[in-house]
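1st attempt posting a full record on here, be nice pls
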Amino acid sequence: MGVYKSSGLISNILGFLLIIGYILPTSQAEFTMNPQMRYNCFFFLDAVALFIILYEGKFDIRRLLFSFFTLFILLIFSEYASVNYVGRLKTGVLLLYGTNIICCNITFSKIKATKFWDTLFMLMMSIILLFCFGTILNIEYLNHFLRIYYVDHLNYFLNNMLLQYKPVSFFVSHSIAAFNYVLFIVVLFIRDRYYKSQVINKVFILGFILSMLFLRSNSSIIFLLILFVMYITYMKKQGKKNSKFLIILLSVLLFTGLVISNIDIIIMILSSDRNGLIGRFSLDGALASSIKFITDINIPTGLYDIKYEGKWLLYIDSSYLINMMRGGVLLLVTYTYVVIRFIKKNIYNNRNLFILFILLFDFGYSFTWEQRFLSGFLFILPYLKLLMEHNQVKTKSYNYI
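the predicted structure (as tokens):
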């Protein structure tokens, strides 16, 4: 633990505020969304992120220019849509893009994670897993708490997840939960390399893997497969193949057993026309009209939601799809560039791993707009740097990709 740098009061306060932003409630009554509380979560994150930018006093000109260009594209196409389409202005969209841009223009330099951040991270993992297993074991007190304070998306969406024993915790949707749990597993795995004596790391990793299995969604199945391949690849990189062979073999057998025992459920989930990739992107899927709008090469709609061929288009799920609808290829390129450059400027080891995951997340859902993800990711970035510095003291660094 001697590798931790002396605690900085501002860094500790900011770490605490980011964790608070991560768990802020979005409702205050059962089965009832509260849009104002949802907006307040974004405003809170914006305030913290702006303070970080001003405190750091460091700007990446290229990232800043692309960010302004992103907003410019949205406004230009909004002006066109206001005249040429039947639609309605959605000012909330500007809040989503604005929050993403503010957060993605942060470059951490002065703010250093400390031992306090490690304590906050492990406490957060404990709380999330508590609610996960509360759902799996149907502990009504914990589920009731979620139904009151974390209603989002639709009034009964969270309750439907809980009734199916899907451990979504604060994240409401099984897809969003799966993406967060993948991120937690990766960070915990990195942490486990530096604190091998801490059994709690392995317990938490196993807890999130089990939670992903119980989510029973396209996202959880796909990312569990990716994590498994990454794990095998990592074990091979460690050398001492003979001593690691048994661990790899047991892992393969365990994973194969889990897949075989749940093969009917897995096939049903992956082939379902009501959710996942097929349910969204097929010719008869929920997003068929939105995809047709793009393939017909129409002028993007900016901040407007519009009617196309008599139907209101759905601006949901895939970040790539939404960006194409609102700003075409230009917006897709500028938005993605800012996100990737943000990660590259703040992660020095395994950056390709995190870029890959974030880009995959955004394919299935507009994850980089999520207020909880942004709050958590801003916390994780300095925390990862702390772990990387710890690793450089103890051993050589391994890249997973």
